[in-house]
Write a sequence for this structure.
C-alpha cells in the first residue's frame, strides 16, 4: 500500500520569506500523480500544485514550486514571498495512475504553516 | 462554474441514529469521491463513483456506511446506527476523467458530531 509522510507537523515563516514543506512517499508504481493541497482554517481544501511522475520538470504555479525527486521518492513544496493568506494546513497527496485514473488519493498528515507578520 | 457543494455543513446526532449527507459535484464531472477526515489527520479515502457506478470501496467503509449516486449526478452518504467514532469531517470531491491530471476538487465538507 502507498504511504505519504509529512515529517513537519508545523512550520513557521516570516512574511515575504521562503519556506519549504517536506513530503516523502512510498510506492512500487512507476506512474503516478502527486499533489499539494491547502486547507485554510474552516475552509475547503484547494489544489496548490500537481506533478505527474513521468515529467522530469518540476511543476511551478506562481509563488509555489516543487522539488520532485523520483528516485528518492521526495516531493517538497517551496513557497516564495510568503503571504499572510498562505497560512493553512498543507497536505501532500499521492494517486496511482491506473489508466482509468480512478483511485482515491492517499494523504499525509499535513503540515500546519504559520506566517509571522 | 460552481464548485462542489455539500449539505448539511454541520450535523449533530445521538449515538444510534442514522444520518445522511449529500454532495453535488461540479456539473460536468463524472467521478465523485468520499473521504473522511478526523482532527489532526489527512483525509482518508472511503469510496468512489464513476457516473452512477460505485467502483471502489475502502475497507474503512463498514457495513453501516452506504453511498449512492443515482443518475450519476449528486451522491448521498448514509451512516446507520452512528457511533461516537464516526465523528469526523466527511469530504466529497469530484473530477473529470482524463482531465487536468485527474485533479480532484473538494467540497467544504460536512462536520458530524455523534453524542
Amino acid at each position: 500500500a502507498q504511504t505519504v509522510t509529512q515529517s513537519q507537523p508545523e512550520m513557521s515563516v516570516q512574511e515575504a520569506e521562503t519556506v519549504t514543506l517536506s513530503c516523502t512517499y512510498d510506492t512500487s508504481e512507476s506512474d503516478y500523480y502527486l499533489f499539494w493541497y491547502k486547507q485554510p482554517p474552516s475552509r475547503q481544501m484547494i489544489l496548490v500544485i500537481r506533478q505527474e511522475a513521468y515529467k522530469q520538470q518540476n511543476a511551478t504555479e506562481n509563488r509555489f514550486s516543487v522539488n520532485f525527486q523520483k528516485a528518492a521518492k521526495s516531493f517538497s513544496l517551496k513557497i516564495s514571498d510568503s503571504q499572510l493568506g498562505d497560512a493553512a494546513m498543507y497536505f501532500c497527496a499521492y494517486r496511482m495512475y491506473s489508466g482509468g485514473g480512478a483511485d482515491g488519493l492517499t494523504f499525509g498528515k499535513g503540515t500546519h504553516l504559520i506566517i509571522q507578520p | 462554474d460552481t464548485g462542489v457543494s455539500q449539505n448539511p455543513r454541520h450535523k449533530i446526532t445521538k449515538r444510534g441514529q442514522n444520518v445522511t449527507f449529500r454532495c453535488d459535484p461540479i456539473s460536468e464531472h463524472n467521478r465523485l469521491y468520499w473521504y473522511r477526515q478526523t482532527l489532526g489527520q489527512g483525509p482518508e479515502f472511503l469510496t468512489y463513483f464513476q457516473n452512477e457506478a460505485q467502483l471502489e470501496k475502502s475497507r474503512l467503509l463498514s457495513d453501516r456506511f452506504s453511498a449512492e449516486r443515482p443518475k450519476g449526478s449528486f451522491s448521498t452518504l448514509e451512516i446507520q446506527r452512528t457511533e461516537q467514532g464516526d465523528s469526523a469531517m466527511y469530504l466529497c470531491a469530484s473530477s473529470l476523467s482524463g482531465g487536468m491530471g485527474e485533479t480532484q476538487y473538494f467540497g467544504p465538507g460536512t462536520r458530524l458530531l455523534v453524542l
Summary: The mean pLDDT of chain A is 92. The first strand of chain A starts at residue 3 and ends at 5. The interface with chain B takes residues 4, 33, 35, 37, 43-47, 50, 52, 91, 93, 95, 100-110 of chain A (CB under 8 Å).
